[in-house]
Design goal:
Strands 4, 5, 6, 7, 8 and 9 form a 6-stranded mixed sheet that branches. A 3-stranded mixed sheet has the order 1-2-3, covered by helices on one side. The chain contains 5 helices and 9 strands. The chain is globular and about 50 Å long. Strand 1, helix 2 and strand 2 form a beta-alpha-beta unit.
C-alpha cells in the first residue's frame, strides 16, 4: 500500500468508529510555549485531555510532526525520522484501553491484513489491565507480550520520576516482526533487542494521569 492509501484507510476506519476527523495542526504550535515544533498528534488536544473545551469525544488525525530530539538517530535505525506524519486516534473521557487496543488490532489484521503472527505487544510493567486485554480479549500469546519500564512504556518517557508535569500515562506498543532471519538472529530475540528485527508500528498512550509538581 502507498502512503496515501494507508492514511486514508486509517482515517476512514476511525470515522466508522465515531471519530471526528481533525486536520493536522500547524507544525509550529500557535498557543503552546512549551514546544518549538509539533512532535506528536496529541499536542493540539492538550486542553481536551484536561477536560477543557471538549467539543467532541473522539478524534482522529494525520499530524505533521518534527522531532529534533531524534536527529542523531536518523539514518542509523529504521524507526527514526525528522519530518513525518503521525496517525492518531484520541478519546476525551469516552472510550479507553479495551476499545483502543481492540481497534488497533482490528485495523492491522482486518484492514491492512497483516499476519497476526508477525505482531508483538508491550505494556508498562505495572499496567495489569492492558496486559490482560492483550492476553484474554485479543488472545495474543503471552510470550509475545513484553513488560517494559517507564523509560520505554510511559509517556512522556520517565514521567513518573522525572516529569514533566501535566497529562501523562502508561503506553502499550505494537511491534512488527521482520522474522528470525533479520537482525541478531538469536533464538531469544524480542522487541527489547535493538538489532532491527522488530519495529514499533503503533503506540497507545493511556493518558490517565495529570502529574503535579510534587510528583
Amino acid at each position: 500500500m502507498r502512503t496515501d492509501e494507508i492514511r486514508q484507510a486509517f482515517l476512514e476506519f476511525f470515522k466508522s468508529k465515531g471519530h471526528t476527523i481533525v486536520p493536522s495542526d500547524s507544525l509550529v504550535p500557535k498557543d503552546d510555549p512549551t514546544l518549538l515544533f509539533t512532535g506528536a498528534g496529541m499536542n493540539q488536544f492538550k486542553e481536551k485531555f484536561l477536560g477543557r473545551n471538549v467539543t467532541y469525544k473522539r478524534a482522529a488525525s494525520s499530524q505533521k510532526c518534527l522531532r529534533t530530539g531524534d536527529l542523531d538517530n536518523v539514518g542509523k535505525t529504521s524507526g527514526h525520522h525528522t519530518f513525518f506524519e503521525m496517525l492518531g486516534n484520541f478519546s476525551f473521557g469516552d472510550y479507553f484501553k479495551k476499545e483502543a487496543m481492540q481497534w488497533s488490532w482490528e485495523f492491522f489484521t482486518k484492514v491492512l491484513k497483516i499476519d497476526p503472527e508477525r505482531l508483538w505487544a508491550s505494556v508498562y510493567k505495572d499496567d495489569k489491565e492492558a496486559y490482560d486485554i492483550w492476553k484474554d480479549i485479543i488472545k495474543m500469546p503471552e510470550n509475545r507480550i513484553m513488560k517494559f519500564g517507564e523509560k520505554d512504556n510511559f509517556w512522556p518517557s520517565e514521567a513518573p520520576t522525572k516529569g514533566p508535569n501535566g497529562p501523562c500515562g502508561p503506553c502499550s506498543e505494537i511491534f512488527y516482526d521482520y522474522g528470525k532471519d533479520v537482525g541478531c538472529k538469536k533464538p531469544g530475540c524480542t522487541p527489547a533487542c535493538d538489532c532491527g528485527r522488530f519495529i514499533e508500528v503503533w503506540n497507545m498512550v493511556f493518558t490517565q494521569f495529570d502529574r503535579q509538581q510534587d510528583g
